[in-house]
Amino acid sequence: MDFRKMNNNRLIIYETPPTVNHMYENRMSGGRRKRVLTPEARRWMDNAVVLANLWRQKNKWPTAQGKVIVKLWYYFPDNRKRDTHNGLKALLDALEDALIYTNDKYALPWIMDYEVDSKNPRIEIEFEEWKKNG
Known about the structure:
The protein is of the alpha+beta class. It has a single domain (3-129), classed as CATH 3.30.1330.70. It is 25% helix and 32% strand. The chain contains three helices and six strands; from the N terminus they run E-H-E-E-H-E-H-E-E. The protein has helices at 20-23, 39-58, 88-97; strands at 11-14, 24-29, 32-37, 68-76, 107-116, 122-129. The strands form two sheets. Strands 1-6-4-5 form a four-stranded mixed β-sheet. A two-stranded antiparallel ribbon has the order 2-3. The chain is globular. It starts with 10 loop residues before the first strand and ends in a 5-residue tail after the last strand. Mean pLDDT is 88; it is low at 1-7.
C-alpha cells in the first residue's frame, strides 16, 4: 500500500480488481459445494477495504445512507483485452465493507475512462452523494 499518493479528491486502489471469473473457487463443506473467494481475491479485497477506510477517515466521509455516484478511472497494467465493468463486483463489495455506503445496491458506478499505465496499474475513484433534482 502506498499511502503517500492518497489524495483528498480520489481514492486510489493499486492493482485492478479480480474479475468475477477469478474471484471464486468451489470448495466442499459438509458434503455441499460452496463458492468461496480465492486467496488472491481475498487479498485484493482486504487491501481495498483498508485503503477505502483510510480515505473515508481522512476525508470525513460519513457512510452514505442513499445512492452514491462512484466515478471510476482505470489504469491497466498492459494492453490485453479486458472490460472495465468486469471487476465491479469485487470493487463495489469492498467499498461497502469499508462503509462508503450501507449497501452496494446504492452504488451508481460511472466509468469515466481507462488507459494503460504499466508502471502503476490502479483504479482512481471519486464519490458523490446522489442528489435528486426537484
